[in-house]
Structure formats: C-alpha cells, structure tokens
Design goal:
Helix content is about 35%, strand content about 25%. The chain is an alpha/beta fold and about 625 residues long. It is an enzyme of class 6 (ligase).
Length: about 625
C-alpha cells in the first residue's frame, strides 16, 4: 500500500472512530468545551487563592477599570455608568461610609432596596473597605425584616426611599439596638434615620488604599444571601469569597465573553441576579443592563434596544414570555445565551420554537450548597450532567429516600443506599475543603440540620440539598421535587412554618399546616393550608385575609384554605402533608370546607367548582 493510500485509510479510520464516538457520545464536543472552561476556572481560582493578598472579585473589577475605563458597565433606564464612573462613584460611597459610620473591615451592612444601580455601586463601595453586604429581600416586613437584619450581625442598614415606610414600622426596635440607618436621599427629617446621598456627593472619588481590606481571605464572607431553607424564618447563607468566585465563573463556563451584554431583571437579593448575573459579568468584563423588575411585555423590546446577548431566567420567566401575544419580530434579537434554572421541558421547547436558536444553559444549585450542575449540552429538561469531575471533586450521590418518614433509607449497617439510575433520590454532596459548606450566619442549629452524617462510612459528612433528583442512563440529571417544609412559587422559596406562624396569628385559627400544591400550567407549587379553628369560634375570612396580606409577600400567601377538625401528625408530632398535597384544592376531591383568597375583594371566599374550573382554564390568574 502506497503512503498516500495509507494516509487516506488512516484518515478514514479516524473519521469512522470520531463518528462512532459522536454516535455514542452525541454531546462530545460540547462536553469537551465545558470541561475545558471548567478546568480553566478551577485553575484560575487556585491561582487567586495563592496570591497575597487574596485576589477578589473587586480586584477583578479594578483591573477591568484599568483595561477598559470607558466601556459601559451598568445601563439602567437610559443612564449608563462606565467602568471608570462606577469605580469613582463607589469610591465616594466607600469614603462617605468610612467617615460617617464606625464601619471597618469585616463589619456587615444590610442593603434594603430594589434593583437599581446604587445596589451594585454600594456593594463595590463596601467591598473597598472590606465590609460584607447582607442582601435583604425587599418583600419582607415586620417580624421577618427584624429577623433578617438581626441574624446577619449588621449594625448599619441602607434603605431606598421607596422602602422607608417598611423600616419605620420597625424603627423603635432598630433604635434600641443602636443601628445606624441611612436612606438614599439628599435629606431626611425622620429621627433615627440619616440621609446618605448628600454625604456621597460631598466625598472624594479618589481610590482607597487596599490596606483597608488587607485581611480578606478565600474563606472570608463576601455576602449574606437569604434562603428560606426548610423551616422557619429566612436564614442568612454565608457566601464566602471562594463561593462568590465559583458562582461568578458560571457565565464563563456557559461561554459568555467580554463582548456580551447581560440583561438582569431578576431580583438582586437573589444569587441568580447578583452573583451569577452581576459579579459573573464583572468576571467577564461584560456590560450589564439592569431592569428594576421583570416585565414580560417589555423584555424583548429591552433586548433589542440595548443589543442584549445574554439573558437570565427562572422557570416562571420563560412561561411568562411564552404567554405573551405573538409578534412578527419575536426572533428579531441578538440573544444567544440564556442562563437560569427551573425551565420545564414543555415550556423550554415552546421558548426555543418561538424565540429562535438560543443556547439555554440550565443550572442547578443553591445559595448555601456545595454542589452545582450545568446542562452544558442543552438537553431539554435536564439540570445538568454528573461527570467524572462531579464524582471526583464533589463526591455527590443520589440516595434512596423514604418520603413518608422524610429521611434517607439506610441498610442493616446503618449506611445510606444509593438510588439506581432512573430512580428518584435525595441529592447529597460530601463536605470537603474543595467543596465546603459555610452554613448560616448566627444559626448553628440550622447549619447542623443541613449536614447528613455517616452516609457511606462512619464519620463522613454530606450536605443535604433537600432536593429529589433522577439520573438517566447517560448521566443527565433531572430535578423532581423538594423534601421537607419548603415549596417554590413565582421563583421564590416559601418556608411553610413561617406562613403557618402568620396564619395562627389570626384570631380564629388554632393550628395551620402549610404546603404547596400543583396548578396545571404553572411552574412550582402554590401555597395552601389546612387549618383548625379555635374552640367555639367561626372562620373569619376577612380578618384572616387581612392578616395574610399585611404580613406576607404575594408569593407566600396561601391562596387556598382547607378547614379541618384536626390536623394529622406522625408519632413524633410532625404534620402530615403528603395526602393533603395529593388531594390539592379541588372541591370535587376535598370534602372539608375550602376557601380561595380573593385579593381583589380582600377576603377568603368559598371555593366552588366554577372557581376551580376558571383556575384550570387560566381565566383566574394566580
């Protein structure tokens, strides 16, 4: 055989081999790119950790300022801050806070405001003096607001003018605790509050010494982000500098570059909006287009107006966009990447069919968790793939789970049992130096509850995600459900015990068992409660509605009430939810009195088959 023939034969064999690999591994190229980006990110983080002092996301921002000072950084409602302008403004913020407070490196400041540029600039300013930001959910009020503020250990609260009244409700308590409260206005006539904008305007925009933050390390807290978790009031999850970097690399792993324009319409108090969106854009050196809140009708117009190339979503976001009226220009945009979580398979397909060839990168993770997945292949319905990296770095597993007893199954030796492929199991991830779990600020009890011990051998410790997932034969993994006392509605986690506490404050209610129920055509589960009434007292629909609407954000309000003579509990007095969840809110199924929260008339009204049918047909919007 001649040399040329041998070369052609070798080439043919190579092409055949590659074809077989592609047949067996249809996502090989995408996986190779994902693997390359992931390894590169891990190597960079390792390099950052070796630097003295530690190289932070703030340092990355300052390098971007030097490299592209005039590049647009934040675009908001027609106003643009360049990288240089954002740097100077955050210098002024840092100097004003340093001068007018006792804040020093390591202290915590709570931010209570909606999506606006000052949110981002405040964080940069706080980072420049080594302070930690606690990102308060702007929906919380009263008892929950006080709790969220207190548990993060902050002694300074910064609030936007729009939320001033919410702070005034708890102002006496905050003043008793000697909390410094700054409002983002030029002047303030309320005792116990100070204006901040005037102080910022008077401050110098000169750079601050890095010595003010010289003790920041990889394990230092960077943020406190609140999560409902499984029980009780919100908990302040500790986001370390290492964790902040890891989540900020998500954009890079998804293929985002410095040339991209990232659209953030998710709340900045969430990990998705602030970390994956904002600090992820800093890591890339990209431009951020910030929206005060999500608007399905304005979404694509904004994308066209600002030449957006990367969008973020949660499951509900996609559904809302698909439910808007079709337009001839639905695919007239520059969006090429969508990053998010919670996309239902049917909505995912509908989204792509309608809005064009967009690379949907579905993520899985939690604010406090030590494991995450990325659906690098774009396989519809999957939240990611368990690769050898996950097995090696994260040491994760799906465990057989007893939903009736609300605990993992164990064998005769007392160790947990792995779920087989195709079988739903509880996701756990071993807690190690490379996959740490920082826990919750000021809440050792809840931190300990998230740890699962003696999983596969004596002494091992795993992070319990509280999520049930399923793995297919190709190692792609699919989210199935949540366990415990949390459900998700409108993209928000709702802690059932917090809602139950609010319900029992109503004069007529003795006990409440809160849970989430599915609604056809909607992502997540909507709030429902089985309640018992106080002896000799009738149900008061108006006062109960008032209690709920005044104390809970819209997404957490139980839209359905089921009145029972008694609540079913286990032998250890845990409230039983499974049967209640399965029976749902259909009057044809439930014989107990049922009520529906009518927010227009501000009362609970009897649940009828007509109302049920209207919800099913979406004539009644939830």
């Amino acid at each position: 055989m001649h040399t040329g023939q041998m070369f052609l034969a070798a080439l043919a064999a190579l092409l055949l081999l590659l074809g077989l690999w592609r047949y067996r591994l249809p996502h090989l190229v995408k996986y190779a790119l994902f693997l390359f980006n992931t390894i590169r990110a891990r190597l960079r983080l390792r390099q950052y950790a070796k630097r003295t002092p530690f190289y932070t996301v703030l340092d990355c921002f300052l390098d971007a300022v030097k490299k592209n000072p005039n590049k647009p950084f934040i675009v908001f409602e027609g106003t643009t801050y360049s990288y240089s302008e954002a740097d100077k403004q955050s210098n002024k913020i840092a100097r004003s806070l340093w001068r007018h407070t006792s804040l020093r490196e390591g202290d915590t400041v709570a931010l209570f405001l909606g999506n606006e540029p000052f949110y981002l600039l405040l964080w940069l300013g706080l980072a420049k003096i080594g302070c930690v930001a606690a990102l308060l959910n702007f929906n919380v009020r009263s008892k929950s607001l006080l709790h969220c503020f207190s548990c993060c250990g902050a002694n300074v609260l910064i609030v936007t003018a729009e939320l001033k009244d919410a702070v005034k409700e708890v102002l006496p308590t905050l003043r008793e605790q000697n909390v410094s409260i700054f409002i983002l206005t030029g002047e303030c006539g309320t005792d116990g509050m100070e204006s901040l904008i005037d102080k910022i305007d008077q401050a110098s925009d000169e750079p601050l010494s890095s010595a003010l933050r010289s003790h920041v390390t990889m394990t230092s807290p960077a943020l406190y982000i609140y999560t409902s978790g499984t029980t009780g009031l919100p908990k302040a999850a500790v986001v370390s500098q290492q964790r902040l970097w890891a989540a900020s690399f998500m954009q890079a792993i998804a293929g985002v570059t410095a040339e991209d324009v990232v659209y953030i319409c998710l709340p900045l108090y969430h990990t998705s909006g602030f970390v994956i969106g904002f600090t992820g854009a800093i890591e890339r050196g990209a431009t951020v287009v910030l929206k005060n809140k999500f608007s399905a009708s304005q979404f694509w117009d904004d994308c066209r107006k600002y030449s957006v190339t990367v969008i973020q979503y949660i499951g509900e976001t996609m559904r809302y966009l698909c439910n808007t009226s079709k337009r001839n220009n639905d695919q007239d945009h520059r969006v090429r990447v969508a990053i998010g979580n919670g996309a239902r398979a049917d909505v995912w397909r509908q989204f792509l069919d309608r809005f064009g060839d967009i690379r949907v990168t579905e993520l899985y993770g939690s604010t406090e968790g030590n494991i995450s997945f990325i659906n690098y292949a774009g396989k519809i319905g999957a939240v990611g793939c368990v690769t050898f990296l996950h097995r090696k770095v994260f040491q994760c597993a799906l465990l057989k789970y007893n939903t009736a007893r609300d605990e993992p199954m164990r064998d005769h030796r007392g160790f947990c049992v792995e779920a087989a492929k195709g079988e739903t199991g509880l996701l756990v991830s071993r807690i190690t130096k490379t996959a740490p779990f920082s826990g919750y600020m000021g809440n050792l009890q809840q931190t300990e509850k998230k740890k699962l011990r003696d999983v596969f051998q004596k002494g091992d410790v795993y992070f319990n995600t509280g999520d049930l997932l399923r793995m297919d034969q190709d190692n792609f993994i699919y989210f199935q459900d949540r366990v415990g006392d949390t459900f998700r509605w409108k993209g928000e986690n709702v802690a059932t015990t917090e809602v139950a506490d609010i319900l029992t404050m109503a004069d007529c209610i003795q006990e409440a068992n809160v849970y989430g129920v599915e609604v056809a055509g909607h992502e997540g589960r909507i709030g429902m409660a089985a309640v018992t009434l106080k002896e000799g007292v009738e149900f008061d629909p108006i006062s109960t509605c008032s209690q709920v609407m005044n104390s809970l954000p819209a997404y957490a309000r139980p839209r359905f009430l089921r009145i029972q003579d008694s609540l079913e509990t286990t032998g250890t007095f845990k409230q039983m939810k499974m049967t209640l969840v399965e029976e749902g809110f259909s009057p044809a199924v439930v014989s107990d009195p049922l009520y529906f929260l009518d927010e227009k008339t501000k009362t609970y009204i009897p649940m009828t088959q007509e109302i049920y049918n209207s919800i099913e047909t979406k004539d009644i919007k939830l």
